[in-house]
Structures are given as C-alpha cells and as structure tokens.
Design a protein that fits this description.
- The protein has 326 residues and is of the alpha/beta class.
- The protein folds into 3 domains: 41 residues, Up-down Bundle (Monooxygenase), CATH 1.20.1280; 131 residues, no CATH class; 127 residues, no CATH class.
- Helix content is 29%, strand content 25%.
- It contains 11 helices and 14 strands.
- Strands 1, 2, 3, 4, 5, 6, 7, 9, 11, 13 and 14 form an 11-stranded parallel beta sheet that branches. Strands 8-10-12 form a 3-stranded parallel beta sheet.
- Helix 1 crosses helix 3 and helix 5 runs parallel beside helix 6.
- The radius of gyration is 24 Å and the shape is elongated.
- The relative contact order is 0.06.
Amino acid sequence: MDPLSSLPDEVGSHILSFLSTKEAASTSLLSKRWRNLFALVPNLDIDDSVFLHPEKGKRERDGILESFMDFVDRVLALQGDSPINKFSLKCKDGVDSDRVNSWICKVLQRGVSELDLSIDFPAYYYYTLPEEMFVSCTLVKLKLTSGFDIHWWPGCEDISLPLLKSLCICSRRIFFEDEIESLLPCFPVLEELQIDSMERKGLDVTVSSETLTKLTFFVVSTKTYRNPKSVCFDTPNLISLSYSDFVAWDYPLVNMEKLVEARLALRANDDQIKRVRAPNNDSLEDDVVLRFGNVVKLMNGIQNVQELHLCPDTLEVGFLFFFFLA
C-alpha cells in the first residue's frame, strides 16, 4: 500500500482540501478509498474559468458548457449528503441558471455555512436566486458579486437568516424590493454588511442594528440622482464605516459611539454645484448650501473616530458650505 493510502481519512481529506476542486475530484478515479475521501472534503471551489478558459476560444466549442455543468453535477453527486463548510461558485453566461440554482440548493441542504457566489448572468437571463437561500438556518457568511445588475432581495416576508454574520453584495447596480431598514431585522446577528452600488428606492434611509460592527454602504452614483432627505445611523457597536452617497438634507440621528475608522464620500450633483458657484448668487430658493450644513450633524456623530478618510468630493461639499457662509 502506498503511504498516502495509509493515511487516516481526516488527514487525506485535509490534503485534498488544498487542491482545486477539479484536481481533488480527479483523485476519485484512483480508487474507491479516494472517492470516499473526496466526499469528505468540506470546501468546494467551482470556477468555470478553470474548466473553460485555459485555451483561447475553448468556451465557444460545442458541448464544452454542457461538460462543465455535468462536471459540477458529478462533483456534488460524489459528495452525497456529507456536510459542507464553504461553497464557492464562479460562472458566466451560457451556464444554465436552473442548474446553478439546483447546485446552490444542494449545498444548502447539506448545511453549508459560507456561500461565495460570482454569477455574471446578463439582464436578459432574468436571473433570481433560489428562495431556499433566504431561509437557511446554517448560513453564516454570504458573498454575491456580479458584473451586471442584481435584483437581489425578494422582499422581507417569510425571510430569515438567523445565523448570518457577514453579508457582501457587489455589483454594477443592486436593487432591493424593500428599504434597508426592512432588510436588517432579517439578520439578527449580522456583524459585517457590505452593499456596493445599491439603488435607493426612497429618500429616507435608516440603518439600525445593535450587532453591526463593520458597514460598507455605497449608493449608486449618477449625476441626476436625487439627494436623500434624511439618513440615520443607529449603530451603537459600529467600529468601521465606509459610506458613499449624495449628501443628505439632514442627518437627524448618528449613533456611532464606538466608531474607530470612517471613510466618507459625500457628493453634490452637478446642478447643485453649478448653482452654488453661480456669480451674484445672494440666495438659493431651496437653501441648498444651508441644508448641506447638516453634514455637521454627521461629523459630530463620529467625533470619537480615531481614523478619518475624506474623499475630494466630501471636502468640496464642506468647502462650498463654509465658503458660502463666509
């Protein structure tokens, strides 16, 4: 018997976990024992670029996409119902969205605790994530990235992820059926939240959570986008904040007593900047600059911060306010 075959199962499966899923799965051809060892591998990393892109133009060959999907089906079948810790999936257009969702559902049934999904399906796919993902009792960490728009959140009715501690959604633009204040109660132990390129539905934003310690909140940037009327942060245990949006008319509540690090990118739209810079502008009908002065409320709310980063747009908003009052 070769030395590797004499290793305990937990050692053999641990060794396989350092290989790519494609390489680890190929060991199942060696013998029944290696097939059993592969079933114990707790982490799966499925990347269509590894399977499809080593050679230029390989993705376009007849049958290659079907071969990739068959490979994933076989991998999941080989593992059966064994517990799984992490499932990473990266795939682009051409892959059957129904089969993608079936893969996600299978690992959810096996009690996966970490999902890392990078799914680049164009808008014409009308792709939606499986409902099972929003009622998982085992999911602790969820990351979703896409180069296209994401209609991610199906609404808060009957949605619960009671163990979710980390949620990251990064896309060109993200749409939610509900406001963020309705979303957060569905994650009672959430500690880290990253939403990159979110499209706001309303003009009032409230981020309220007792458990959040890290928040990255970037609202989609368009030159014609309206400023929010009010933005509230009721996050008493927040340690790190990265916040990018058009400057709000008001910040009535800023509760961040434990904040250590903050990165702010507050912007005015082109029309507002033009009006403020106009010569002989003795008054502004809607008090644009005076309302921008409410940014002081935000700054006062984070006055205990130890490390503060301000982008050039934020400095410009502050300069326009103080210059106008001078």
